[in-house]
Specification:
17 helices; 326 residues; mainly alpha; 0% strand
Length: 326
């Protein structure tokens, strides 16, 4: 049925390939995939390239802020978040190191993992444009490299669309199936003129997704000036476009679903946490408040909701009886 088409295919196909070659059950293969992806994210987060920009303290505090954030638990659960964040972050670091083709490849892979992964493709293309304007290539091969990066940065999305087109005769069947199964309709009209109940329930849904994302955006705006002074203009553009595109695509697709899942979709927008780290590096008391708040929400909401159940019993167990009717 169409319900099997509501999950983006890149991650499960990768898990199936790993399960086949490691001779493991598919659930363990998917879990191992997420664990390895999370390890690479955390390992590269404090690499020399990042610490040269942020300093050792700034890099580590931003990593702590990311790990304390309740929905970051999804990085090591079975789900697309771990791979999407890892590939997006690797793309950014590769771009910082001037490994442009590698950056484009990683961004393209992210676009095959989840639909908002295309934000990495958009961010990289915008960053490359700024780089070309500021430092025009002098050799033909340099021009060809930058031109090749544009389609390469979205190769995963192209492969998924070609697969859907050949297999089901509809390149956009994921979006149509998602709307059909979850009884919603993503549209620009909804984004520009949202119903009040969508906003209200987005703020108080079981995971409080709206509240968290509003907070993250405020953190980013407050810490933006201090953060970007460490990065040249092309890398600044990458970070800004990534945040705007990731949150924009996620809100577009989930607004009339009460923004459910939005707080974990925001994990891909890793500059949000770099800004938090920059703000908190000299504010230990505020860091303590952030860690305490995140820990409470993780144990009482995130983990409970994940383990509880998707039905009435789970909502009651997690003190969310007001959501039973939804």
């Amino acid at each position: 049925g169409t319900c099997t088409l509501t999950f983006y295919p890149g991650y499960p196909m990768l898990g199936r390939w790993i399960a086949k070659h490691l001779h493991k059950p598919i659930d363990f293969a998917l879990w191992y995939t997420s664990l390895v992806a999370a390890f690479f994210t955390f390992f590269v987060w404090t690499c020399r390239t990042m610490t040269d920009r942020l300093g050792v303290t700034g890099a580590w505090i931003s990593l702590i802020a990311l790990n304390a954030y309740g929905p970051s638990c999804y990085l090591v659960f079975i789900g697309t978040e771990g791979c999407a964040v890892a590939l997006t972050f690797l793309s950014f670091v590769a771009f910082m190191k001037k490994w442009r083709l590698a950056a484009a490849f990683c961004a393209g892979a992210a676009s095959a993992i989840r639909i908002s992964g295309v934000a990495a493709s958009m961010a990289l293309c915008c960053a490359l444009l700024v780089e070309v304007i500021e430092h025009p290539p002098r050799k033909l091969l340099e021009w060809l490299e930058r031109i090749a990066c544009v389609p390469l940065s979205a190769w995963g999305a192209f492969v998924v669309m070609i697969f859907f087109s050949k297999r089901f005769g509809d390149a956009f069947i994921y979006a149509r199936a998602h709307e059909l199964i979850y009884h919603h309709e993503a549209s620009l009209e909804h984004l520009l003129h949202p119903k009040p109940e969508w906003i209200m329930h987005g703020l108080d849904n079981p995971m409080h997704d709206g509240m968290w994302v509003v907070g993250l955006v405020l953190w980013f705006l407050l810490g933006y000036k201090a953060l970007v002074r460490h990065f040249p203009s092309a890398e600044r553009v990458y970070m800004v476009v990534l945040v705007v595109a990731t949150l924009g695509i996620s809100v577009y697709g989930s607004l009339d679903l009460f923004s459910l899942g939005l707080s974990r979709y925001a994990l891909v927008a890793f500059p949000l946490f770099l800004a938090i780290g920059e703000l908190l590096r000299r504010r230990p008391f505020v860091l303590l408040v952030w860690l305490s708040l995140c820990r409470w929400h993780y144990t009482e909401a995130d983990l409970c909701y994940y383990e509880g159940d998707l039905g009435r019993n789970g909502l009651q167990k997690c003190n969310l009886t007001q959501w039973v009717s939804y």
